[in-house]
Write a structure and sequence with these properties.
The chain is mainly α and about 325 residues long. It folds into two domains: about 60-75 and about 190-320, no CATH class; about 80-185, no CATH class. Helix content is about 65%, strand content about 5%. It is built from eleven helices and four strands; from the N terminus they run ββααααααααββααα. A two-stranded antiparallel ribbon has the order 1-2. A two-stranded antiparallel sheet has the order 3-4. A hairpin with a 5-residue loop joins β1 (about 25) and β2. α2 packs antiparallel against α6 (about 160-170), α2 (about 80-100) crosses α11 and α3 (about 110-120) runs antiparallel to α5. Residues about 5-25 and about 25-50 have low confidence and may be disordered.
């Protein structure tokens, strides 16, 4: 979810929120400025083609390709959505766990990857209960794995820190991803329409926030966490998100348009919070992108951070409320 980075002149001073923050590296190990104003300045970023510092043609191409995969799965083989979610969750989990290990956290990667898949695929027979059981099993195996990672004769170092980081990854990525996988399963109250509402809502939010931020962005929203975001961009996201929500809930899900307005606003707000969580995570690790897997977007986690968080309000409203 990209709003706008505020343009800086060549002699502009670094704001207080970035003072003392060292240069960071991207996923390829290249030194880059911290995630602050000007960090994505197009003049300083080779190959960037937009005022927001993105390789816009590449971003659009990747976005269209991913969107086509989702649409084809939902229209012709809905279980394919679960497969796509499983792949995305595995990629995002691997990216985040890998960055943590590069930063010195000894997180158990194998239990996180296998546990994430367990959570997703247990939704097929057991629904929401499968997510809970899968998370409990993942947590237990992760804690035991880290406990004996140094062998039976040695006590693990930084056990609480590393185990806490691993459990954060498990709660953050595969848990919400499994809720997304559950959306398409009619046996558990889901329907492909819910996935359409989620994905179109996230896209509308991104497009509205990007356009409003580039054209009108002037007031930073949370500069200490993600200086690129502006209140004007958030307003643009809310407008397009509520319009998209009203249309998709009415035309696709067959529910009242005002429910879509409410849900669209929730997708924007919760999705923005999900994006901010990832921004702070990357600032703590001193990186710009989780990886370079998706040109114009960064890593898989950089692409799905908003959608992961937004799965919860979509599921709660379209399944439990209406």
């Amino acid at each position: 979810m990209i709003y706008r980075r505020f343009p800086r002149g060549p002699r502009a001073a670094v704001p207080d929120s970035c003072e003392g923050v060292p240069n960071v590296t991207d996923s390829r190990g290249q030194v880059r400025p911290p995630d602050g104003p000007g960090a994505d300045d197009p003049a300083a970023a080779p190959g960037a083609t937009s005022r927001a510092g993105r390789d816009l043609p590449a971003a659009i191409g990747v976005g269209v390709g991913l969107g086509a995969l989702v649409i084809c799965a939902l229209l012709f083989w809905p279980p394919g959505w679960v497969v796509l979610v499983a792949i995305a969750v595995a990629a995002a989990t691997g990216e985040v766990a890998g960055q943590l290990r590069r930063a010195g956290y000894d997180v158990p990667v194998i239990p996180l990857l296998l546990g994430g898949q367990l959570m997703i695929w247990l939704t097929l027979p057991y629904g929401m209960g499968g997510i809970g059981a899968g998370f409990a099993a993942t947590a237990l195996v992760t804690l035991v794995w880290r406990l004996f990672s140094a062998g039976l004769s040695n006590a693990p170092q930084n056990y609480i820190r590393d185990s806490g980081a691993a459990l954060l990854v498990a709660a953050w990525i595969p848990t919400f991803g499994a809720i997304g996988a559950l959306m398409v399963q009619e046996d558990h109250g889901g329907a492909p329409a819910a996935v359409f509402v989620l994905m179109i809502g996230v896209v509308c939010s991104d497009v509205g926030g990007y356009a409003a931020g580039v054209l009108f962005g002037a007031h930073p929203m949370v500069p200490a966490i993600s200086p690129k975001k502006s209140w004007e961009g958030l307003a643009g996201s809310l407008v397009t998100g509520m319009i998209g929500g009203a249309l998709t809930v009415w035309l696709i899900a067959g529910e009242a348009w005002w429910i879509g307005v409410l849900l669209g606003a929730l997708i924007v707000v919760v999705g923005t919070l999900g994006d901010l969580i990832e921004s702070q995570f990357k600032r703590d690790l001193g990186i710009k992108d989780m990886s370079t897997l998706l040109p114009g977007h960064g890593g898989m986690m950089d692409r799905i951070d908003s959608a992961l968080a937004a799965t919860l309000p979509v599921w709660l409203i379209l399944v439990f409320w209406v």
